[in-house]
Amino acid sequence: MCLLSCAHYCRAIKLLLLLYCFLWLFFIFFFFFFLSFLFFFFFFQAEDGIRDFCLSRGLGDVYKRQAQSYGVDMTLEEAKKFRDSFFNAYAGISWWHHDLKVGTFWEGRTLTGRKFLFSPRSGVADMANTPVQGTAADILKRALGLLFEEIVGRDWKIVGIVHDEILMEVPEREALEAAARLKTVMERAGKDILRSVPCVAEAKTADSWAAK
Fold it and tell me: Which of 62, 69, 122, 193 has its CA at 20 to 30 Å from residue 131's CA atom?
């Protein structure tokens, strides 16, 4: 009986040690996973902040943000001054926002006629942003259609579309020609839709996506 009892005790101790080790491994895994999550969250937040400093000052005005919500390192008075000077220079945008604010809109269309619907909770920012972004998407689709005609029968590949950007992979010896063709079709697409607004595209060549 004594030997049997000792065997049972040894087995129980082994199980407790295994459970203890498992709990420690789980804790370590969860701890490092949590740290990794915090690192990447704050890293990308900081990266976005650099870009948003430039975007929020101009686009914030266009899409009707209040002066105190720029989200950049400037005083409230500086933000108001920048905002006021913007609307003084572009009075038509101010009137456009006024019409959106006092009117009741349940639907709208891009410049190509593509329809979109607003909800009762849509604010001025949504109503101003949607037709602009929607028309930009229409321009990009038009550019893709034109670009297809240029790449048929050639070793040129469309590998990515990011917002208003088209990424291509082409043989190195044809890089400059491909860049020129891409610039041409993107500007033509913009001209086809925004007929009274000049659209200038920029094409770059690089050895990798990171270097673009």
Answer: 69
pLDDT tens per residue, range 180-211: 999 999 999 999 999 888 889 999 998 877 76
SS3 166: strand
Residue 58: burial class (beta carbons within 10 Å; 0-12, 13-18, 19+)? exposed
Evaluate whether 141 touches 109 at the Cβ level (below 8 Å).
no
Q: What is the pLDDT of residues 23-45, one digit of tens each?
A: 666 666 655 555 555 555 444 44
Instruction: State pTM to two decimals.
Output: 0.59
Neighbouring C-beta atoms of residue 189, cutoff 10 Å: 22
Written as six digits, the tokens of 133 are: 């972004």
Rounded distance between C-alpha atoms, residue 151 and residue 139, angstroms: 18
Cα dihedral 50, 51, 52, 55, rounded to 10, equals 140
